Amino acid sequence: NLLGVRHILLVLSGKGGVGKSTICTELALALRHGGHRVGILDVDLCGPSIPRMLRMQDRAVHQCDSGWVPVFVGQDRGIALMSIGFLLERPDDAVVWRGPKKNALIKQFVTDVAWGDLDFLIVDTPPGTSDEHISTVEALRHYKLLGAILVTTPQ
């Protein structure tokens, strides 16, 4: 389902609270403003903040023949978005999962979301250097990974 995605960007950090989700959101908005087709994949499973940042937290994910349909942002449906935040009963529910379940969901997000044609897919990763990062890179290995943005602070 990523065959129509031209470029994939990972957004990473070594710690939480440095602004990864803000960078992802602003980058997606800027690329969209520049005329690009953009998607955001929020794999920060324990802190899915992208739906809230884009005021989409009350939306639901639906199924189609080719997988999950991402949530589209704006009247022009200019940004496609997938997050575990859409799969929770309540947006503030905690996700307390062991590694294998998290890794399986990340793989499912990569293989089972019907992204369609995108110029850029921005991947918001969790903070740190956990199994989720390895699973994300492994799942994206066969696709057009453009690069990574490492968000840091001066401490």
From TrEMBL:
Its Gene Ontology cellular component terms are: cytosol
User: Which GO terms label this protein's molecular function in UniProt?
Assistant: 4 iron, 4 sulfur cluster binding; ATP binding; ATP-dependent FeS chaperone activity; metal ion binding
Question: PROSITE patterns annotated for this entry?
Answer: MRP (PS01215)
Keyword vocabulary terms for this entry: 4Fe-4S, ATP-binding, Iron, Iron-sulfur, Metal-binding, Nucleotide-binding
Respond yes or no to whether keyword Hydrolase is given for this record: no
Q: Name one GO biological process term.
A: iron-sulfur cluster assembly
Keyword Iron in annotation: yes
| Record-given protein name | NUBP2 factor
To which species is this protein native?
Answer: Scytalopus superciliaris
Lineage per the UniProt record = Eukaryota, Metazoa, Chordata, Craniata, Vertebrata
Originating gene: Nubp2
